[in-house]
Amino acid sequence: MRTATVWGALALAVVLSGCMRFDAHLELSPDDTVDGAYVFAVREGTGAALGTSDREAAEQLYAESGLSATLSHARQHGWSEGELVGTEVTFRNEPLTEFAPTADRFGVTREGDEFVVSGPASAVTEEDAASLEDARLTVSVTFPGPVASANGQVDGRTVTWDLVGGPEVLEARGSAVRETSAVPGVLAALVVIGAAAATVAARRRPSRPTQARRAAPRPATASSLRPPPPHAR
Question: How does strand 74-81 pair with strand 84-95?
């Protein structure tokens, strides 16, 4: 992310509107690709001061930021929230190499089974930071697995930094291996155990007597043993 260029454009918007927003969210995948979204927005009326619409003003901020140069699978659409109007850029399956850190901007690299976020938070000067007090500028990174360490706010597998008044250098380290749930394995084991128990119970249950065994032969009586009478002549 070319933060130095981003902050120059954003500072201009803040001076004109008094309020603006920049959010960046990166979701890292184990196959070294990145999904995510950028939001650029300004307060309603900012576009009119520039002789354009609010959305077009936000789109111009995105164009000037240089972020579009690193994306090859991006989609851009309108965005609004409250008094803010702007544009949201979403992207999928971007190569991790496009997000590598440089001397003047933070980025993400992979070290073995971990992703590492490192580098300067921005190139904002002290004077610029004073003018950005009413702006919201955040970056968040979601790891495939647990977060090992970070100097931002950790929420589950996601680390978020406030770039206004936040750390000068972003630092985070998290697993590049996606967590697997133990629930399917437990359920499969329970099914196997249940089937085995049912088989054992069936083998131990006494067999029911057959109809032939239940019907015992009747004892012979005197009448049944009497010889037939001779034929009448």
Answer: antiparallel
- Report if pTM > 0.85: no
**Where exactly are the structural domains of the chain?**
3-175
Backbone angles phi, psi at 91, to 5 degrees: -150, 155
176: its two tokens: 């590049």
* Close Cβ partners of 199 (under 8 Å, ≥ 6 residues apart): none
The four Cα atoms 71, 20, 86, 84 give a dihedral, to 10 degrees, of 150
Burial class (CB in 10 A: 0-12, 13-18, 19+), 142: buried
Phi, psi of 227 (to 5 degrees): -70, 150
What would the mean pLDDT of 35-49 be, rounded to a whole number? 92
Q: Which of 101-110, 136-145, 154-163, 218-227 bottoms out in mean pLDDT, i.e. has the lowest?
A: 218-227
Mean pLDDT of the region 178-196: 60
pLDDT in tens, 134-176: 788 899 999 999 999 999 999 999 999 998 888 999 999 999 9
8 A C-beta contact, residue 161 and residue 140:
yes
As a dihedral over the C-alpha atoms of residue 186, residue 191, residue 194, residue 196, rounded to 10 degrees, the angle is -110
3-state secondary structure of 133: coil
| DSSP per-residue codes, 182-230 | SHHHHHHHHHHHHHHHHHHHHHHSPPPPPHHHHSPPPPP-HHHHSPPPP
- The Cα angle at residue 74 between residues 69 and 78, in degrees rounded to 5: 110
* Phi-psi category of residue 152: left, alpha or beta, with phi > 0 → left and psi -120 to 50 → alpha: beta
**pLDDT at residue 218, as a whole number:** 59
